[in-house]
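FW: tagging you since you asked about this chain on Friday. Here's the raw sequence from the shared folder, copied in full. Didn't touch anything.
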Amino acid sequence: MAVVSDPISDFLTRFKNASRAELEEFSAPYSKIKEQIARILKEEGYIWSYETVKDGDFQVIKAKPRYSGHTPALTDLKRVSRPGLRHYVGCKEIPKVLGGMGIAILSTPQGVMAGHTARKKNIGGELLALVW
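HL: got it, structure written out here
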């Protein structure tokens, strides 16, 4: 397996590729932050379910993208903050994705959460990705 310099981007890319290829499920190496991102995507209706399973010596996250017929719930996504360039926002600067039709995913001092939740709690953080 290749060394990945940005594991969050790798997880999101696997999700996007699986949705576009209409795959029933995809898997990615486990980490706590990827599990939290999968939880948010499930709560917001972009994936049906996810689970953490042991695959040999390593843990893996297996997720099932959501579809409406043959149309994926995910249209596109954008990784905002990356290892070489972090992007932090205050609670007033959290973007509304497609006028509220998409979500922003933030890493805050209170954990990883969707942008609308962070706005309600009046906290900012690192803007990880935009999903629509």
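FW: Strands lie at 26-29, 47-55, 58-65, 67-68, 71-72, 77-79, 88-89, 103-108, 111-114, 125-131.
HL: agreed, and The helical segments are 7-20, 32-43, 115-121.
FW: great, closing this out.
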